[in-house]
Automatic annotation (TrEMBL):
Keywords: Disulfide bond, Glycoprotein, Immunoglobulin domain, Signal. Coiled coil: none annotated. GO terms for biological process: heterophilic cell-cell adhesion via plasma membrane cell adhesion molecules. Signal peptide: none annotated. GO terms for cellular component: cell surface. The keyword RNA-binding does not apply. This is Carcinoembryonic antigen-related cell adhesion molecule 21.
Length: 87
């Protein structure tokens, strides 16, 4: 009599653990600066996967004097100009 293989049950599960995104904290290196002379480094502290910068409610358009860090968490403006002030 031939032996019948027993059923084999393999379960694969993929679990994603997500942490709610905390409200980001923005820290500025300087709050009192001289135009065309000083620089400002803005750092965004968050647990979000990505960071996007906004200026006056719109996506920030980088200029020559603006640089983002490799992970987009730090924005350096050097030198700072009056036009860089905003919400």
């Amino acid at each position: 009599m031939a032996q019948v293989p027993s059923p084999l049950s393999i379960n694969h599960a993929l679990y994603f653990f997500t942490e709610p995104v905390r409200v980001p904290t923005l820290v500025a290196s300087n709050t009192t600066v001289m135009e065309h002379k000083d620089s400002v480094v803005l750092t965004c502290y968050t647990n979000a996967v990505s960071t996007q910068w906004f200026y006056s409610g719109m996506n920030l358009g980088l200029t020559e004097q603006m640089k983002l860090s490799w992970n987009d968490r730090t924005l350096t403006i050097d030198p700072i100009r009056k036009e860089d002030a905003g919400n």
